[in-house]
Amino acid sequence: MTTAQENTTETETHGVLLSDTAASKAKALLDQEGRDDMHLRIAVQPGGCAGLRYQLFFDERTLDGDLIRDFNGLKVAVDRMSAPYVQGATIDFVDTIEKQGFTIDNPNAGGSCACGDSFH
């Protein structure tokens, strides 16, 4: 008896979540600049007083090993080295009288520095 094996390819993705508000704001910023060739990238780099620092920026590059996920037409990329550090993190956009900008709520962060710029 012979059995056929299915060839299925599963695209690896990251576990970062992007709120609808953050996705809308990021898309609006790209539209304002007339850029449809860029995506949002989140990366973790050594630095800051707590040891690790987030980088959140628009990028036109696709790096080897990138994990990409689509949120309502906005692609979010995470490199393989950063992915474990941001697994389950939520990116949001807040616009209040006290604060305006993108925020990252990361359940993997054991703590952060007083300025909130870095984590460990």
Automatic annotation (TrEMBL):
One of its GO terms (molecular function) is 4 iron, 4 sulfur cluster binding. Residues 18-117 form the Core domain. It holds the Pfam family Fe-S_biosyn. InterPro entries: ATAP, ATAP_core_dom, FeS_cluster_insertion_CS, HesB-like_dom_sf. One of its GO terms (biological process) is iron-sulfur cluster assembly. It comes from the Bacteria. NCBIfam families: iron-sulfur cluster assembly accessory protein. PANTHER family: IRON-SULFUR CLUSTER ASSEMBLY 2 HOMOLOG, MITOCHONDRIAL (PTHR43011:SF1). This is Iron-sulfur cluster assembly accessory protein. It comes from Actinophytocola algeriensis.
